Amino acid sequence: MGILTTTILVFIGIAILFIIIFAMSGHEKKTSQFYWFAIPSLLLAFWALITSWLWFYYFCMYLSLPALFLSSILVSMTSRLNREHCINKIIIGIQLGAITIGFLSAIFFDVI
Asked: From start to end of the chain, where are the E strands?
């Protein structure tokens, strides 16, 4: 099993876990809308973190950076709904980690 298959399986496992958590959460309209943006943002941030080191053949440009961009858009929407929630800080921390790993691996693979 290759690295890409393993990464996809881990991503699917995390997605299933967060779908179960979302199904068990409250059903208020504002809270529900918040989690509809927060959970995909968190999953995309994890995907970007996992795949941000793939600079050979510039796979990072096709796998990690679009997910990071979409996650940034979704976290800005969640910040409008509930700025105080701790999941926003976690998502931003994961995004910064993905950017850091991507930058360090770009230096390691002599892309920069």
From this structure: none
pTM equals 0.75
SS3 52: coil
SS3 assignment, position 111: coil
- pLDDT at 21 (0 to 100): 67
Q: How many residues does the chain have?
A: 112
**Is-contact 67 50, C-beta < 8 A?**
no
41/68 Cα distance (integer angstroms) = 9
Backbone phi, then psi, for 10, in 5-degree steps?
-65, -45
Q: What is the pLDDT of residues 34-80, one digit of tens each?
A: 888 888 898 889 888 888 888 777 878 888 889 999 999 999 999 98
* 50 φ, ψ (degrees, to nearest 5): -70, -35
Can you tell me the distance from the alpha carbon of 91 to that of 95, in angstroms, rounded to the nearest whole number?
6
